[in-house]
Amino acid sequence: MEAATVLKLNGLAKRFGSILANDDVTIHLQNGEVLALLGENGAGKTTLMNMLFGHYLPDSGNIEIKSVNGDLVPLELGNPSAALAAGIGMVHQHFTLAENITAFENITLGAESLFSLRRNQRKAEKKINNIMSNSGLEAPLDIPVGRLSVGERQRVEILKALYRDAHILVLDEPTAVLTPQEADALFSNLRRMTNHGLSVIFITHKMREVLSFSDRLVVLRHGKNVGSMETSNASEKKIARLMVGSETQKVSPKRITPGGPILLLNDISVAGRSKRDSLQNISLTLKSHEILGIAGISGNGQNVLADLISGLVLPDKGSILLKGVAIQNINPLNMIKLGFGRIPEDRHRQGIVGGLSVSENMVIERLDDPLIQNFGFLRSSVINDNAQTLSEKYDVRGPGIDQASRLLSGGNIQKLILARVFEQQPEIILANQPTRGLDMGAASDVQRHLIEARDRGGGVILISEDLDEILGLADRIVVMRDGNLHDVNSSSREAIGLMMAGESV
Ligand SMILES: Nc1ncnc2c1ncn2[C@@H]1O[C@H](COP(=O)(O)OP(=O)(O)OP(=O)(O)O)[C@@H](O)[C@H]1O
Ligand SMILES: [Mg+2]
Question: 58-84: per-residue pLDDT in tens?
Fold first, then answer.
């Protein structure tokens, strides 16, 4: 028997200025199905889901959704409350929880009036506990969300949608910030829920997830639906051909002999607020002509290490030596002047200023350069020419260089940051999860740039949760765990995985 259709997007279109973000997109979703929505950065995936959720009003087309009595009925467009009421839940590419209140409050606020919540607190708790045990998604309910791990926050986002009785759940790059183990757990929990009638659309750039966890996939290219197939008939090659029209070449660098040490972290400790913010007696040498891979499950001190090397955090003990000389003025601007380039993990908070234009963000780390600013005046023609050149060279696509950078798609924001860093040809590059959220082609481009920087004589510190990326690129690997670094003498995937998980090998 054919499963019933629960959702139909019919000929949806959306234009932003000169960009046709969605072009006559028709997609259907079956009951209990897990549908993967794929496409290059900027292909229009998030825009399509934002129309489904009522955030954007389509220019044309309509949406039909299954009602309580099982018929397909038109969904009121451009109205998030209507989408919620119709049973659509959305977990956004970037989290939307309020950090200073608890998970319980985040989940229930808005769904219940404050008055009824006070009376029915017990009932609400019971409902959440039921959802948690049916779905397998567990999270502490009574501490502020700001203190939860990324994985826990995401589970709260999903619980929030399920609390509102969503029967269609949309997840925009849900695993971009999860460890492989967390991602696997999430998908098996989703599968549990689809067995109870939930239908899921998820956006991802990770082929492994598409091939192991979806039932069917749809590919968008330049805003158009260019093909759909059952996952059982799909392969990485077929998908790549649909996404970009050709196969992407995997990057595999030639091995070269490293030069002398350029950066030395000497017995450094940082006492953070919690374990995940602390470093304990860390020493590390980076050589020229070397990519040093730092493997590890996130939350083991990687971000403090990155902040330290970027000058955002000062060591409580120990020193940083650049070519044998201790750096005195550790601050972000000075580090950039000394030849450090930084690709931050959190591109929204640390990478760009969303309200400033694309052109401005492309020079934001060198505002005191007289080429950019003269006697207090920004040289706008230089800044615009620079942005034009970099956008072409690094394939940053979006609504225009004079537009606010927050309007770029997730992956294109990352490309903007990469362009800014690579163009300065820094001697030392700190790359923290540089390919997260990038499509296959863009990820290969970044990897190629890192290799180029190395071949030019620079040193690269590559922090990545993607063990395949580390194994493919790094000349040397260390594992980070509990704020410490551990040398790796084996290149076996299993051995490194076990070290990451804290087992001695
Ligand atoms: N509010 C907006 N104003 C102007 N342009 C926009 C707006 N929202 C999206 N765009 C543009 O529409 C295009 C599609 O963006 P969208 O975010 O849907 O891409 P995506 O497929 O989700 O990409 P990614 O994989 O990078 O997240 C991009 O070129 C983006 O810059
Ligand atoms: Mg997106």
Answer: 999 999 999 988 899 999 999 999 999
